[in-house]
C-alpha cells in the first residue's frame, strides 16, 4: 500500500501526457475543421499547413485546442472519448448486440478459455511423462524449450484458413491457437516444478519405501504447484493474444481482434482504442484471477507468502 | 501402396523410439552426443513421418504439404525469403529491439535514482508487461505508415516494459553490504553503477533480452497483418495463406524459426561471455 500514492501519481502523469499529446496529434484536422466552420486560423489553406510542424501549428492556434479532444476520427482519441466509448459499448448496449463489447469480448474469451484449458491439461500430462521417462525427456524437452524462442504465433493464420477449408470455423480454430501458445510455457514450467524436490526429499520418500505413484502424489505434485501457477499466468496471457490474432486472417466479424481489424480498416480510432482497452482489462482480469487462485491454493497448502 | 507408407511411418516411429529409449537408458546417456542425438533422432523421425503420412494418405496440398515440397519451395525462393527477412527481421524487429532496449535502459536508470518513481512506475510497468500489447499494432500502423517504421514502433512498445521491469529488478540485486562497501571507498553513484550494480544486474538484463528477442519477432510479424508494403514475412504469410500456397507459408515459418532461434542463440552466447561469473553459467 506504500506504493499506492506513487502509482496514482504515475497514472495521473500518463493521462496528462496523453491529453497533451492529443493536441499536436490532432491539430491538423482540428484546424481544417475550424477553417471550414469559418473560424480564423493562423496560416490559411490546408496545402500551406501540411508542411508546418504539428507543434508550431498547435502554438499558433491555441483557440482550436478544445476541438482536438472532441473529433470523430482523431489520430489520437482523448482518454475521456475512449472511456465514453467503452462505457457506451459495454454498459449501454444489449449484451447480444453486435455493437456490444461484452458480446465481442465473450467471443474472444470463450476461445481463450477453451484453448487455455486444453493447452494446460496437455502440457501437464506431457510434463508428467517427461519427468517419468528419460527417453521422452531427452527427445521432447529440447524441442519444447526451442519452441519458446521462435515466433510460433506466425502459424496462426494458416491454422485458421486450413481448418476453415475443411469446414471447421468459429471457436475451435482460435482455441487450437490458444492451446498451443499456452502449451509450451506450461510444459517447461511444470517440468521444472516436478523436478524441484531436492534429492534429500526424494531420498526421504525412499526410506519410507514410497512407490513412484506415492512420491508423485505426495511430493512432486505439491512441490510443482507454485511453478504451475507461474506458467499459468504466462499461458493465459499468451492464450488471449492467440485468440485475438486468430481473429485477424479471415477478416472475422466477431471478437475483439475483429474489432481491432475493422477499426483499422475504417479509421475508427476510438473503436480501436476501446477494443484495445477491453483486451487489456480482460488480460488483467484473467491474470488477477489466476493470482487470486494461486494465493488461495498456496495458503491452503501452507506455503503462502 | 499408400497404406504401406503409413504403416512404414508407424514402424519407423516404433524403431526410432526404441533406439531413443536404448540410448537414454544406456551407459552413454550423459554424453554430449546423446544429448544432441536423441532430440535430433526424434525431430528427424517426426519429419519423415510427416512426409510419409501426407504422401500415404494423399493429404491435399492446401491442407498440409509434405516437408520435401516445403524444402523445395524454400530453396527455390531464396531471394524472396531473403527480402522478407531483411524487411521484417532486420529493419522491423532488430531496429525496434535496439531502440526499445536502449529506451528501457535509460528509463531504468531514471527509475533507479528515484525511489518514488520506482514505487510508482514498477507496478504500472509489470501490469503493462502482462497485457496483449500486440493490439497496439493497428494504431501504430496508422501513425507510422505501412513500412518498417511502424513495425519497429510496435516492437519498441512490446519490448520496453519487460526490459524495464527486468533491468530495474536487476539493479536492485546488490546487497546493502556491497553498496556500503562501495560507499566506504567513496565511490560516486556512477562508479558504483558501472563497477558493482550493472554487472550484478546482467543476469536479469539478459533474461529480459532473451524474452524480448522472441517478442520482437512476434511483434514485427503480427504488425504486418494490419498493413504492410508488398514485402515482409507477415505479409507473405497472410497473402500466401489467402492463395492457399501453403508450401510458401511453411517456408516462411521455417525462416521465422531459424531467425528466432539464431537471435536467441546470439543473445545467449553474449550472455555467456558477459556473465561468465554467474553460477548458472559456470556448470
Automatic annotation (TrEMBL), chain A:
The chain crosses the membrane at residues 106-131, 143-163, 175-194, 227-250, 270-293. One of its GO terms (cellular component) is plasma membrane. It comes from the Bacteria. Residues 101-294 form the ABC transmembrane type-1 domain. Its main location: membrane. It is a multi-pass membrane protein. InterPro entries: MetI-like, MetI-like_sf. GO terms for biological process: transmembrane transport. Pfam families: BPD_transp_1 (PF00528). Keywords: Cell membrane, Membrane, Transmembrane, Transmembrane helix, Transport. SUPFAM superfamilies: MetI-like. It is found in: Cell membrane. PANTHER family: ABC TRANSPORTER PERMEASE PROTEIN HI_0355-RELATED (PTHR30151:SF20), ALKANE SULFONATE ABC TRANSPORTER-RELATED, MEMBRANE SUBUNIT (PTHR30151). Belongs to the binding-protein-dependent transport system permease family. This is ABC transporter permease. The lineage of its organism: Bacteria, Pseudomonadati, Pseudomonadota, Alphaproteobacteria, Rhodobacterales.
UniProtKB/TrEMBL annotation, chain B:
It is a multi-pass membrane protein. Keywords: Cell membrane, Membrane, Transmembrane, Transmembrane helix, Transport. Its main location: membrane. The chain crosses the membrane at residues 33-54, 94-112, 124-146, 152-171, 215-237, 249-270. GO terms for cellular component: plasma membrane. InterPro entries: MetI-like, MetI-like_sf. Residues 96-274 form the ABC transmembrane type-1 domain. One of its GO terms (biological process) is transmembrane transport. The keyword Transport applies. It is found in: Cell membrane. The keyword Glycoprotein does not apply. This is ABC transporter permease. It comes from Primorskyibacter flagellatus.
